[in-house]
Amino acid sequence: xxxxxxxxxxxALFFVVSIAVVIVFVLVSNNLVADLAAQERExxxxxxxxxxxxxxxxxxxxxxxxxxxxxxxxxxxIEQNHTIPVLLTDNDGNILLHRNFDLxxxxxxxxxxxxxxxxxxxxxxxxxxxxxxxxxIHIIITPDNLQHLYYDDSKLLKRLSYYPYVQIxxxxxxxxxxxxxxxxxxKAEQNKVWVGLSKETAHQLGxxxxxxxxxxxxxxxxxxxxxxxxxxxKDVNRLSMIASRFSKIGSRPSMERxxxxxxxxxxxxxxQTRISSRISLTVNLWPHELEAEMSAPLFEWVMENLIxxxxxxxxxxxxxxxxxxxxxxxxxxxxxxxxxxxSRKNHKTVFNPGYTTKKRGWGLGLALAKRIVEQYHxxxxxxxxxxxSKGTKFKIELPLLPA
Length: 403
Description:
It is a single chain. The protein starts with a helix and ends with a strand. The protein is of the alpha+beta class. The radius of gyration is 40 Å and the shape is rod-shaped. It has 8 helices and 11 strands. It has a 5-stranded mixed sheet with strand order 6-8-9-11-10. α1 (3-59) packs antiparallel against α4, α6 packs across α7 and α7 (296-314) packs antiparallel against α8.
């Protein structure tokens, strides 16, 4: 299992654990809400029992339990409810008592039993809504006299019932922030490593290249075969260009209007002489110019990396086809090979630093290509098609400049 498979596993595990934590918190919150709802139900049952006993005292004032202390206790139970909205009705639906509702009109303290038309309409609406719920206690005053106590959830219970959903949103937001923060930090660290590695490579190449250039001039001055010196000079110039490419990583390269066909052809021509004769390289250029804002040396590097990867994928023989064409306002370049292909799950992973299927290699070529295309050229590079044992097609898209 490579580092990217481990990262995928770690990411999946992170989200699974996060979801499990959210579920636990939601279950705990729901249990709290259920416990509070049960407590309010018990309070309303006590409230209903007190209402029945008060009605019994009213019907039988000579009963032993009709003493003032007992009546005062029962009334205190009724009065102590300051949080739970209640509606008491008779069997005909007439409202006998109401408490703890935010009425549209204030109640006259000298005559609290008087219900104004506006308050009556408001309470009727509440009663209609409460009748559809299970929050009701039926009070049997006498066999022929029933009262019904409807109650709504208290403000505290309503807030707690919303709390699990708020909690889910907050925790999901927190998880998302943590994930993206860690991901961004990791990418920033990778960028610093890229820049440092590239510039150090360019710096280390600079001294031996300068020395080789001096030796070539010395060989010329001593009458060494000019053809041999010219070939050496080509290779040294190639090394110099490679060092220049590395030095451009991390700093904004100069971008110029270039013909995509010409840049692609230069890179393909260079690679043509450096690959096996058993591998055919075909270049199909769009018959008209495709102009884009480019850094030609860096884009040639991208093309060389794609062609080299195609060569490695075919393990000695096969064919590579390079095509250029316009599509949806973009200049497109595709590199298609007949190699071993890439599994679907790795279509994006192949562009990650360090990912490689070869026994030797750093796995940096495609990562560099992605950085050059997307960060410097404002384009896109992707695996357009791939099937195991059949081949792969890489596609580059660049913003097309008007003619």
